[in-house]
Amino acid sequence: MASRILLVDDEFDMIDMLGEVLRENGYTVETAANGVEALTALEKGHFDLLLSDINMPRMKGFELLRIARERYPDLKSALITAYNINDYITLAREQDVGNIICKTSPFNFEEVLSMVKNLVTEDVFGIEKYVDKSAEIHTLEIRHSRDIDTAVDFATEFFGKIEAAVRLNIALREIATNAVFYGARNERGDRKETWEIDVALKPDETVRVSYARDAEKIATAVVDTKGRLTKRDVLYWLDRNIARDLDGTPLNIHDIHGRGLFISRETIDRFIINIRRKTISEIISVQFTEGKYKGYRPLLINEF
Amino acid sequence: MAHPHRKEVAVLAKLGAKLIEKLGEAMSVDYALYVVDHPEDLSAHSPETAIVPLTAIEPPFHDWLERMRFFSGEAHILLVGDPDALPEGFLASARQGQCSIIPTAWVANGLFLPGLFQACQMREQRNQIADLHRHERSDQDLHRELDFRSQVLRWEKDFTANIISSITSGLMISDLEGNLVMVNDETKRIFGIGPKDYLAVHYREIFEAPAVLAMEEFSAAALRSRARVVSERSFGEDLIVSWKCYPVVNQAGEIQGTLHLIDDITKQELTERQLVQAEKLATMGTMLSGVAHELRNPLAIMSGRCQRLLSKKDNFDEWTVHYLDSINEQTIRCGAIVNNLLSFSRRESAGYDYYGLGKILDEVLTYVDYQNFFDKIEVRKQFKDDPLIYCDRLQMVQVFLNLVVNAGDAMNGHGILTLTAQARGDTTVVGIHDTGEGIDPKNMKKIFDPFFTTKEAGKGTGLGLPIVYRIVQLHGGEIHVTSSPGNTLFEVILPTRKKDGLSDSSR
Q1: Reported pTM
Q2: What is the pLDDT of residues A159-176, one digit of tens each?
Q3: DSSP state letters, B106-173
Q4: Could you read off the pLDDT of B493-507 as tens digits, one per residue?
Q5: Which ipTM score applies to this complex?
Q6: Chain B residue closest to A265 (CA)?
Q7: B335: closest CA of chain A, how far (Å)
Q8: Is the separation of the CB atoms in A205 and A224 below 8 Å?
Q9: Interface test with B, best of A105, A168, A174 (most B CBs within 10 A)
Q10: Which member of A78, A282, A292, B6 lies 3.0 to 4.6 Å from A274 by CB, making a disulfide possible if both were Cys?
Q11: Nearest chain B residue to A260, by CA
């Protein structure tokens, strides 16, 4: 049976267009122009996914999601917005919303479809889901802390000399290092002087790095099998790095925890975090080689 | 022939004895030497005044002055009836011999005492050492008594002198003709003229043309309106002054000359201009942000619709597809402009920390390394030390990337890009130098204005440099530009340490 999606936006043209695309891809779609209409629709029928705009009159997207989740705990939900996602990071943290995508120009239909599919099927892990079927994919294993350099060097070779690769590699080093020391070995950030930085990883601490390349984009995935990362932590760190207090000072001005993650997210076009609690932590970075979708970056965090 | 200065001379003669007494007490003047063309007019004069007829003055003047000195003891101040009537070359010689000349006309117009004061100041400064020697030679007791009295009087004189020389404004007094009665040290510093004695010299002979012009204008205005004239004036790029000109009026209400108070406000002006610029950018940013946000929904819809149409282009004829392509392209272009506007007004910061400048510049270079138009550009790195800066890394990368890309554009693919970095006190100075066509002088003031661009339509948003400017400001730094064809340098000065207040309000 086709999955049922409820699309909510006060911009009629937007849901008309999105609705059409989703239907073409096999989903059943109903629409609502505001939060009240949406709640009525949810009452009348069963839905698998609620996709709503944030900035609507009378009831904002966050509020709609909060009420809907309370009433329908199995309902999956996500937000879409034309505005700066970072402006909503505090709300995202408070309401535990991990999926917010942007309305860009050019419009990124592929991202909408990808996110919808992931949410509905809950089948999110694996770099191959985020690139074309024809993409070339390689995987390396990090079994020793020295292998981090090897992993980054391979990326340089594999992706070649393009600007998109520079950004991807900078983030890769940061993410791989985090995966080895925080993820796999569970080191503490405030005790860096006690770390063994030249260390072999135990078999269950192995970190896997995948590389993918298709016509439009390049991507890396870093996976550790300890699953220590949590959606709550990620939202917390992003919030602290992005949000400001009344004076305009970032909340984290004096501590640097999570800054690496934040900077990586700012550098990468599409940054995806997939978590299976206590089992897998996967961070996927996707970069468009031609810089096609410049503008605000989506928030994509899935936790199971 | 008339005796134009007879009246003044008569006054002087009367004052003569009293004057010498006072001068003697306060300023160690032993004799007053009058040079007049008709000495017989000076019937009553004190033994301390020496009268010399004009006719007695003959070249070589240096010798003459030496004789006078010998005769009068320490006559370093010449009260002259009519300086113009003196033999040619005498004035020059006198000044060379370090005599101060005071026209007696100043007695009538009330400028006499200031002028005399100035002259004695100059003399005093020159004679410090001579004084010391003189005291040694005197009789012990007399010496002690004189010493005591002159010390007290010297203190009084010094007090006034110190006030005048330490006021931080430049002070100038000129008579109606333009001859200077007094010029303090600050004036000399501001206009870069020597520490000489400019007594009774016309300002035309001391200052350069722009200052002369200013002097003329302000004096004329003050005299005409009989009131204070306040103005600001720039002398080139490096000097901006605030100039207050007052008519000097005696108790009878007659104007005697002009007084000028000049303040060097260059630093304040430049700081204020930077603040105004920053204000401008911030206001624009807020305005633009609102508009840009509103455009996002419509643009996303337009793009989306076009893309959907184009995904079914097989259904359309070539002409229709061509039009759709065009609409799509233009819509995406609008989207890019909106993104630029929003990134301009965004106040994002990853937080401040200490970062190595070398690493930041290396990162910037890797980005441009892969860009085609940098292929034929030679890049030279001259990083002295590896300075650390306290900054937001993301923003700094943006700053230098902008500057480096601009440099590349200016060189049109051919030339030398030189990056320098060195520590200077508690700042780090980064230089980005290119050998490109340079910035037109008339554009220099506008390059940091939003939307100002010399690139053709669609190629530049004109927001690169304003963003750079704002980020540098937020870091408590400065940015300076100098440019001539083939030689353009952007210098970014950044604090190496956390500046007070910086971490409290990163706006």
Answers
A1: 0.63
A2: 988 888 988 998 999 899
A3: HHHTT-HHHHHHHHHHHHHHHHHHHHHHHHHHS-HHHHHHHHHHHHHHHHHHHHHHHHHHHSSSEEEE
A4: 998 876 554 443 333
A5: 0.89
A6: B350
A7: 5
A8: yes
A9: A105
A10: A282
A11: B350
